[in-house]
Write a structure and sequence with these properties.
Elements: E1 2-8, H1 13-26, E2 36-41, E3 44-50, E4 57-62, H2 75-81, H3 85-102, E5 115-116, E6 127-128, E7 130-131, E8 137-141, E9 147-153, E10 161-166
Parallel strand pairs: 1-10
Antiparallel strand pairs: 1-3, 2-3, 4-9, 5-7, 6-8, 8-9
């Protein structure tokens, strides 16, 4: 099972990192432990824990001030994202979460277009990623208002998410298990 925890924090990298460490400690894990991924944006911190210690990646981004950057998208992604900023951020958080699950950054996989994200599936079902992230599954999870978040794992069933901290009221609905 994968657990999701949220916390609010002051803006700024130092405050975000401190909040991530505090949140991880509150659930009994270390920020950089196997099976743990964290992300922060604006005033929120997301922590994702695979209870089995498996590979996991997470990302969250604030929507405010974002714009579509076609240069980081594949041709297929540009087709479903278009000029829609929300769709772009959904795509971007899945890419970021994927490179975290892969254990490195975009440089290690050949840049953002090397990870291909299909359009979101109906009913919150996970989607299989392509390119350098082939074999990984992504699911967008409920996030605080004004934010978008994704979790990535090699397990399609990753998406038995159990929320362990709802300080921000971000609720994750029960997912569909359609991994086709």
């Amino acid at each position: 099972m994968i657990r999701v925890a949220w916390a609010s924090c002051a803006p700024g990298l130092a405050a975000q990192r401190a909040a991530a460490r505090k949140l991880a400690a509150s659930v009994g894990v270390a920020v950089r432990a196997p099976g743990v991924s964290h992300a922060h944006s604006g005033g929120v911190v997301l922590l994702v824990v695979d209870e089995d210690g498996g590979t996991v990646g997470a990302d969250v981004e604030r929507l405010a001030g974002r714009r579509v950057l076609p240069s980081v998208l594949t041709q297929r992604e540009r087709a479903w994202v278009g000029e829609d900023v929300v769709a772009f951020v959904r795509c971007w958080v899945a890419k970021e979460a994927a490179v975290k699950a892969l254990g490195g950054g975009f440089a290690g996989v050949g840049g953002p277009p090397a990870v291909e994200v299909p359009p979101p599936a109906a009913h919150g079902a996970p989607v299989g990623l392509g390119g350098a992230a082939a074999g990984l599954w992504a699911r967008w999870i409920a996030a605080p208002d004004g934010y978008i978040a994704a979790v990535v794992s090699p397990r399609c069933d990753l998406i038995s998410l159990s929320e362990i901290n709802s300080q921000l009221g971000a609720q994750s609905p029960e997912p569909s298990a359609d991994c086709s």
